[in-house]
Amino acid sequence: MNFQEIEKLKQSAFDAQKSGNLDEAIRLMNEYLSKVDSGFTHPCHLFLAEIFFEKKEFENALSSLNQSITLSKNFLPAFELRTQIYEFLGNKTLQINDLKKIEEIKNLEKSKWDDPDHYYNYK
Predict the structure, then answer these.
(1) What pLDDT shows up at residue 7?
(2) How far apart are the C-alpha atoms of 123 and 85, rounded to whole Å?
(3) Distance CA 72, CA 68 (A)
């Protein structure tokens, strides 16, 4: 498969999800993930987690979120969804841990913007 065909798989997964064909979206995204380097796929794992969450497949959602976080340790949307799942499952301890991590990530990002020497502020 060439690059365009691989990217078309990802877009087809998004399209399938929008049309409500969740199983097809999962299949297509997994096929896409099998063909690309994992380096920048954390949003794709979040995509899968959101579908699993919608289907109430919480263990699969958590697995996808954990993969997303493994790939990008401060990926805020993954922590936010994982917190919702822990709340839904009644796991207050893990929910609180993730809420603390979310606050830590937000504070870290704020400190970068507040630091005039950080590259975020270079023009």
Answers:
(1) 95
(2) 40
(3) 6
Q: What is the pLDDT along the chain (123 residues), one digit of tens a residue?
A: 899 999 999 999 999 999 999 999 999 999 999 999 998 999 999 999 999 999 999 999 999 999 999 999 999 999 999 999 999 999 999 999 999 999 999 998 887 777 777 666 665
Q: Supply 121's token pair.
A: 């502020």
The 10 Å Cβ neighbour count of residue 44 is 21
Cβ(58)–Cβ(88) below 8 Å: yes
Give the number of other Cβ atoms within 10 Å of residue 23's Cβ: 10
16 CB neighbour count, 10 Å cutoff: 19
Cα dihedral angle (49, 50, 56, 62), rounded to 10 degrees?
Answer: 30
Strand, helix or coil for residue 27: helix
Residue 116, φ and ψ in degrees, nearest 5 = -65, -20
